[in-house]
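Anyone else keep sequences and structure tokens together like this?

Example one:
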Amino acid sequence: MPSDNEYLTYILELLREVDGITFKKMMGEFILYKNGTIFGGVYDNRFLVKKSKSLESSSLKEQIPYPGAKPMLLVDSENPNEIKDLVELLYKDLAKKLLSTHLKRSPQHKIYSENLLGALDEEEFKELKRKELNIL
């Protein structure tokens, strides 16, 4: 069952405190982005986000967005500030993962994306570079 525009509007209102939120409609559902990075979506009128290391100990319940998909986490909070904290934490994890992948592929590139680097402070970025590239 596809998600409806009314529910998307409701979710976007809950995300009003989070900068850089956009969405795309795909196959009757809505994919949610923060600064161009997919972090979740609206599936069958459910607000689901990707799983990440920082959210492992959360009370969010796993759900399957559609048959054959990886499990995601159901966001059932209606508090925009809680949702902002959750999305920012998730985005930071996703940025680290994407940046790490990029550094492994092409270490000569110092900057992958201003949006991704904005999620990490300078020390976190240096630590990630040292770890992934085995630099002192």
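And example two:
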Amino acid sequence: MNREFDSPWKETLENYLPDIFEILFPEAHATFDWSQGYDSLNSELPTLLPDSESGLLRADGLYQLADSDETGGISWVFVHFEVQAQQDAQFPRRMFDYFKRIQDKYGDQVSSYAILADNNPNWRPSSYQYRNRRTRSTFEYDSVKLLDYAHRLDDLTTHRSPVGLVVAASIRSLLTHGNAELRFADKCRLIRQLFERKLADDEVWNIMRLLDWLLKLPDELREEFNELRIELFQEYQMPFVTSFEEIAQEKGMKEGIKLGEERGTNFGRRIGQIQAFEEVLSLPITPAEELLAKPLDELDRMISELKTKVIR
């Protein structure tokens, strides 16, 4: 997957799986019993899908869902998701490899889905075929082309779930490649539509981060966009700094645990805050290793300066 799409799509699948199914795979969505919830198995992917001869296997999502049959019975199935952001002749083979590895561990109840997020409208892989003189096999999987939704942007941006904005941003990212002014206009429109939904603060932040990842702007337009964003926080009377500091604190505590006992959560909390402020300001993220080399008072100074930029 293109790195521009990697993190936002993995996070979107993790947090909005039912809505992604409803928007992109509506027939499949109707067969699952979402009242049963679902389990993410993404933490098992690194050991389940190591390197192989067909390339580096890094699946985008693996989930366990409740599938309902015509009699009302429930069976648990395993759903594998891939988002492919560039044309690749080996992609169908990798889909097959993923399927086989997952099936080997979990059994026959495995379904595979591909979201094709590339810019070639004619590239539409949905199967892998193997044959030699005496043996042949065909593996088929469901796939959807994001470009097919380019004429349905209004439906996406007004969908009951805010994840429709994320799908729309993915499409506009493709269509505005090389046109910074048009991308800026699209991003401003999407961020305003996000605020108009009047969602809970944490969900606004989550979707906003995804939009930032997908619709990256050059430096000269990034500051102008941040000014608009701050105006929207004021217009909709959202506790901009308070809400963000809570998110930064949570990120910081997680960072502190990840950094281990060497420097402790005091450093981790500050590093998490700095990186979170940099993220919302669309600034380059300072590596944790670089921040670890700084004294605490220097980290506090950086936090203060970043906070000033946020509220300015």
